[in-house]
Amino acid sequence: MLTPEVLRSKFEQASSFSDYIGGDREAEWRAFYDAVTLEPEQRALLEGMTRRVHALAVSGVWCGDCVQQLPFLARFEEANPDRFRVRFLDRDSHLDLAERLKICGGMRVPVVLFMNEDFDFLSLFGDRSLSRYRAMAARQLGAACPLPGAPVDEDERRATCEDWLAELERVHLICRLSPKLRSRHGD
After folding, report:
1. 135 within 8 A of 112, measured Cβ to Cβ
2. Which of 36-45, 70-79, 90-99, 149-158 has the lowest mean pLDDT?
3. 5 CB-near residues (< 8 Å, 6+ apart)
4. Total domain count for the chain?
5. What span, in angstroms and rounded, lies between the C-alpha atoms of 132 and 156?
6. What is the CATH number of the domain that holds 99?
7. 21: containing domain
8. What phi-psi label fits residue 65: left (phi over 0), alpha (psi between -120 and 50 degrees) or beta?
9. pLDDT at residue 170 above 60?
10. What is the mean pLDDT of residues 104-124?
């Protein structure tokens, strides 16, 4: 069972974005990260968050889908680090967790766990956003998993960012409307 204690422990073992991407694939991760920008309304949404949300990304630095999705979360954290914190774990180094997060019977990446301020489970999102799946379905020729550094159309990048932001907004609203947290925060 993914108790708050287990989730907190995994979060504390995890790395920041900068620490996680260091190594052989850093150039690909940095290139995509540098291409990610937030629109003013996206930044306003993130800055307006009032509840703390934690995200734990179970990933692989070798994974093209991870390279082309997880930098969005790093940008979200930059917009409101007091209310959104993201950490990254290597799936293969944390098989005890990865086994519990199978999607369609397989250990996929990226898989992101969203948790509230008490590390209570809110949501599991992965391995690709809806926009990523739509784009893949439209061009399904060759390997299902792109290589790190593969080009991503700007419209797909924007749509994928919106998918991830919508999920973060959804889990923030779960926290915002939680009777337990409303009572705690007096709102």
Report:
1. no
2. 149-158
3. 119
4. 1
5. 7
6. 3.40.30.10
7. 4-185
8. alpha
9. yes
10. 97
